[in-house]
Amino acid sequence: MPRKFKPGDWVKVKGKISAPKMEVLRYVPKKDSFFGLVNNDSYLECVWYKSGVRNLEVIHQNKLIKLTETGGLFKT
After folding, report:
1. DSSP letter assigned to residue 71
2. Does the reported pTM lie above 0.90?
3. Which top-level group of life is the source organism from (predicted)?
4. Distance, CA of 65 to CA of 76 (rounded, Å)
């Protein structure tokens, strides 16, 4: 599967209005539980901040959409 994003891209989870704006850090290898194969090109590590706390999450690239607006993670 081709990579859809690159580090530094701004993304959001599809279908969720209240989903936070996240920044892509990198692609991470993740082992498939059913087949036991390691997938290097589908899962992204994303970061966002909420109330000054850094949150990390690994998400499949098909669940994300790229945002055209870029900017900081904090609201002022």
Report:
1. -
2. no
3. Bacteria
4. 24
